[in-house]
Specification:
Blueprint lengths: L1 H6 L5 E3 L4 E9 L4 E5 L7 H26 L2 H10 L2 H4 L5 E6 L22 E15 L3 E12 L8 E10 L11 H22 L3
Parallel strand pairs: 2-4, 2-5, 3-5
Antiparallel strand pairs: 1-4, 5-6, 6-7
Helix pairs in contact: 3-5
Amino acid sequence: MKWMLLAALSLAGSPVRPAAPDCELHVWPSFATAATNGGWASNLGLAGAMADYEHNKDQNLRDQVALIEALTPVVQARLIADADLPKLLGLAGASLVLESRPLGRQPAAPLKARRSASSAPCYAELIVSLNAYRKSSLYGRLLVTSFIFRDFSGGAGKVRTVTGRGSNAVPHFARLDTGDAEAKRELGDAFAANLRTFAAKAARR
């Protein structure tokens, strides 16, 4: 049943956990991806980095496509729902609402304005702003996920904003383009670990 709800992301926002109606956590999975393959030349200044980019630009494109296909917003939504994110963020009992519309397609909002139409008195937002694959000679293969957390529950128009990222190894990433099940599972595990890493930093105390 949960999967059916997650698969229905064509809806503007789908509550996936029953909870107190006066407290909501709205989450936007990321539609943005990037991929960068770097070699030793990247450590040799700007000229080396440019040469490295030219050498790897086709591979970067292939890896970005593999990431887009394997870590879709629906897959992210399932992983987010499984993580018990409200509890991780210190909002135990909050209703988790997954937003399906990319923020880039919505009108620009003032910095202190909510990104949804919710008027819940207890309200917070988590935006997954980017999923990026990074391969380097120093750190190996990593999934790096960037987040923005905004907590509107301080009263008097106060908004607590925390930005950051998590990164975890994905050593079998190169096998994604063959549909390898282990590589897909590893990517999902890395995303979930990135989520937990950021939530530990952003959690309400």
